[in-house]
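In response to a reviewer's request, we include the raw inputs and outputs for one of the modeled complexes. The two entities were modeled together in a single run.
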Amino acid sequence: MRKAGLLGLFWMFLVSEVQAAVDPAEERYDLVEGQTLTVGCPFNIMKYARSRKAWQKLQDGKEPLTLVVTERSPTNPSEVRMGKYTLKDDPDEAMLHVQMTDLRVTDSGLYRCVIYHPPNDPVLLFHPVRLVVTKDSSSLLTSDIIPTTRTTEDPGLFTTKYMRRDMTVTQPLPKSTTVVSSPDPGVTFTNATSVTRVFISSIVVPVVCGLFSKTLVFTVMFAVTQRSFGGQTMSHNSDF
Amino acid sequence: MLLAWTLLALLGLGASCNSVVPRGEWKAQPSECSQRLQHPVRYVVISHTAGSTCDCPSSCEQQARNVQHYHKGSLGWCDVGYNFLIGEDGHVYEGRGWHIKGDHTGPTWNPISIGITFMGNYMERVPPKRALRAALNLLECGVARGFLRSNYEVKGHRDVQNTLSPGDQLYEVIQRWEGYRE
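The model returned the following structure tokens for the whole complex.
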């Protein structure tokens, strides 16, 4: 019975560990110089239709750098451009479209979409975006290989999750330049640029590290409770 | 021990996927849709039909046909708009399914989401537990089969469009779901 309680504690640690690792997970986008990054950041239409939105670059030890921000009180779809950065706010569709054109290796880094409403803290939309831009090389699929029919990523592709993410040479990227276009006017969502295989590698390491520390805490707690309850007979908990 | 757990897990997965009522079974009209969804899908949009409810297979099959008739006949769509429909009988009815883009939300969300609707009006009542369970099992199945990302996100219809759907009561319920993200 006490064992069950401790076991429950253990599972709690396990689950909370995975949860922590999963939720703020970055979405990684691997692209090649010259390509365009397209990200769709949804927002809650009831809360943020009229709010300003921004695309920011996150920098270690510094304030996030706002690269482009929407106009005040956008009610209709609006577009704002700052050099290579474009923001399209579609309040009726609850989507913020971000575009970064003509990517360079120096564009690599961590970015995010936010609700921009100083002095309030910005609200993160979508996931932090880890952009990795590499030099064009013949070992990567380049944009001249464009499938003419839209391919669906079938479950078989899940096996690539287990490949190391830096093995860019042999990774199949069937979606790398496919645009998910629908006949619906105006909005194309380039699903192609997202690479989902970061999931395993960015989860396993923090989870394992976290597990070690949590196991240590758990062990200490276990030892402490053993010591404080050791010898005492639990006479009143018979109703389990 | 591990083997037992694995078998149990596999059994569970198989069951959630196998219990969807296929189109033929509810006597659906053929679909004329051709646009496909790219897998794995990231988003799930939960709505309600705001129409009649049903609580047994025969009435739910009829209701699914009614919804399809309205969408195809009156609205001129290629098929019933939803990817899946849930009845109060606790069954999932196959609409456009996992592979075909639905017409349940709007031009931005249809190509990137699975639209699941609850047949009924849930402003003032909640669907029965078996219906909610059916929906959650369906989502589990979607992940297991690779149709949904493992970190898929559930949105209420009203989160992404100006609408009352999925109804106040059902909206409150889904906000407590594991995958819900506002």
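As requested, we also summarize the result in words. The interface with chain A takes residues 35-40, 43, 99, 101, 106-112, 145-147, 149-151, 155, 158-162, 182 of chain B (CB under 8 Å). The mean pLDDT of chain B is 94.
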